[in-house]
Amino acid sequence: MGNKKNVTFSDIAKYTNFSKTTISRYFNNPDSLTLENQQIISDALVKLNYKENKVARILANGKTEFVGVIVPDLYHHYYSEILNQILSTYEKYGYKFLVFIGNENEEIERRYIQELMAYKIEGLIILSHTIPSKELADLQIPVVTIEREDHYVSSVNTDNYMGGYQATSLLARHNCDVLIHINSPTLESIPSYGRIRGFLDFCQEKDLKHQIFIREMGHNYESTHKVLVSIVEELEQNYHGMKKGIFISNDTHANVLLNILIRKYSTLPHDYLIIGFDNSPVSRESIIPISTIGQQIDLIAQEAVRILVEQMNERKKRKPVLPDKPIHKVIPPILIRRETTEGHTF
User: Fold this and answer.
1) What is the mean pLDDT of residues 116-125?
2) CA 257/CA 168 separation, integer angstroms
3) Are the CB atoms for 159 and 192 separated by under 8 Å?
4) What is the sign of the dihedral through the CA atoms of 173, 178, 182 and 186?
5) For labelling alongside 29, which of 54, 69, 163, 166 has CA 20 to 30 A away?
6) What are phi and psi of 15, to 5 degrees?
7) pLDDT at 63
8) From CA 76, how far away is CA 146, in angstroms rounded?
9) DSSP-based three-state secondary structure for 157
10) 145 with 154: CB under 8 angstroms?
11) E strands within 43-105?
12) Whole-angstrom Cα distance, residue 258 to residue 170?
């Protein structure tokens, strides 16, 4: 059986009685045609069983339908889950994603961006913190960031301050003797710094005994475990016998802390309450499900891709109208109560 002939622009032009130039405009600049003519060509593609040659189209118009993504790491469950949600948008928008893991290394991330630009990406989603937003804006492609400094580029962030305030309020309602916040060093320009401010403001407003531990946790289990073991030792020494309400900055670290306490006491002691942040899968899958401030990860990912796609599509128009300032979307968090704060039934 012979090979089936590929349908060409000439075939489509002959079928519709349009010129090949008009057919090319349908693919590369559709808004230059009337809606009626667009519909005629669209119907013809169905009738002719047209299969698009992606390589030829890229060579013709330079549009790759590639989007770059840079995440700091995949150790933190939040990043792996939000990446999963970003990739799932392919079915809706048709954009493919080239993903790099930066590991908080500024020069490596710059090389990754150069590599992505060489692939003619049409847009960029950034979750890492190393490269200033001004430098990202100078790339002259649409950029959307998530949970990082975003003065010069569009962004989607959680209301971290509200989340920090909610977490601290929950612990206070359980009549803890001392409230503890554990976090990594965080610049005030980064949205997640709001978790620290929310904790601190609540404690100061209510005149509650509290302490903040700011420690470099690293990017793997071993380094995080070592730091949290030392914090537990300090808590045991300074607050022995006191009811300790611990708000820790993410679910990955909350799970490590919970494991340390379970290995030490065979359960979560009654004088420890723990709440994390993110609502990543590890919080609900943990041996004792962890209370958390839920970032709406699916909504964050969808909004980030939606904003990026709108900007990329606008640039494809004959007379694009580009936004005169970045778009910043803030998603409210959701307080999720689980066993690490709600009645020691385990």
Assistant:
1) 91
2) 18
3) no
4) positive
5) 69
6) -70, -35
7) 66
8) 15
9) strand
10) yes
11) 66-71, 96-101
12) 18
Are 123 and 143 in contact by the 8 Å Cβ rule? The answer is yes
Confidence band for 151, pLDDT divided at 50, 70 and 90: very high
**Amino acid at site 128:** S
Angstrom distances, CA of residue 212 to CA of 159, 161, 236, 240, 294: 20, 16, 15, 17, 21
Residue 149's CB: how many other CB atoms inside 10 A? 19
CB atoms within 10 A of CB 109: 21
CB-based contacts of 223, cutoff 8 Å, min separation 6:
217
Candidates 251, 328, 253, 281; CA nearest to 83 is 281
Give yes or no for a contact between 139 and 112, defined as CB atoms under 8 angstroms apart.
no
Whole-angstrom Cα distance, residue 340 to residue 156?
A: 29
SS3 of 230-296: HHHHHHHHHCCCCCEEEEECCHHHHHHHHHHHHHHHCCCCCCEEEEEEECCHHHHHCCCCCEEEECC
Structure confidence at residue 52 as a pLDDT band (50, 70, 90): low
Helix axes of 77-87 and 297-315: crossing angle, nearest 10 degrees? 50
